[in-house]
Design goal:
With 153 residues, this protein is mostly beta strands. It is built from one helix and nine strands, in the order βββββαββββ. It is 5% helix and 43% strand. 33% of the residues are buried.
C-alpha cells in the first residue's frame, strides 16, 4: 500500500484533548505513561505480553489510533501485530501527587501493521500500526465524574 494511508484526514497526538469528548472518552490533556508516552501492548509469539512506549495519534475521521515510532517496521511490536492483531494501548498520567490524582485510558482493539505509508509526523518511519478500538475504559478523566467508565467501541 504506497502513499498516504491517512489521506487528508486530521490526526492529532493522543496527548492533546479531543474536540469531541465522546471520541475515545476524552483523552487527558498532556497524558502519557510513566515512561513518557503511551504504551502499546501486543502478544509475543509465546503469548507473553510485550509493552513499549509508542507515539499514538487519533485519526479523527475513523476513530482509529495510529501508532508510530522511529523504526516501527523493525520492532518486535510490529512483527507481533503481523502475527496477532489483538492489542491494548494504555495512556495514563499522574496529575498530582498531593492529593494523589491519576487519569488514563485503556483501549483494546484489533490492529494491522501497515508499510510504506506517510507517517503522522515526519520523524517517524513509514511503518505504522492502525488500531481499531473495540473496548475503551477511562478513569479520572472527568474531575466532576470520578470513577472508572467502560464501553464497547
Amino acid at each position: 500500500m504506497g502513499g498516504d494511508a491517512l489521506g487528508s484526514r486530521a490526526v492529532r497526538p493522543l496527548s492533546a484533548p479531543p474536540s469531541d469528548p465522546d471520541v475515545i472518552g476524552a483523552v487527558p490533556d498532556g497524558a502519557g505513561s510513566a515512561t513518557g508516552g503511551p504504551g502499546a501492548r501486543t502478544g509475543g509469539c509465546a503469548g507473553a505480553p510485550q509493552n513499549n512506549p509508542v507515539g499514538a495519534f487519533l485519526d479523527e475521521e475513523t476513530g482509529d489510533i495510529i501508532i508510530g515510532g522511529h523504526a516501527m517496521g523493525a520492532s518486535r511490536k510490529f512483527r507481533n501485530v503481523q502475527r496477532n492483531g489483538h492489542v491494548a494501548l494504555v495512556i495514563d498520567d499522574l496529575v498530582s501527587r498531593d492529593p494523589w490524582t491519576v487519569r488514563g485510558l485503556e483501549i483494546r482493539g484489533t490492529a494491522v501493521a501497515l508499510e510504506d505509508v506517510d507517517p503522522p509526523v515526519p520523524f517517524m518511519s513509514r511503518e505504522v500500526i492502525r488500531i481499531t478500538p473495540t473496548w475503551v475504559t477511562s478513569w479520572g478523566v472527568d474531575p466532576g465524574a470520578p470513577g472508572r467508565y467502560s464501553r464497547r467501541a
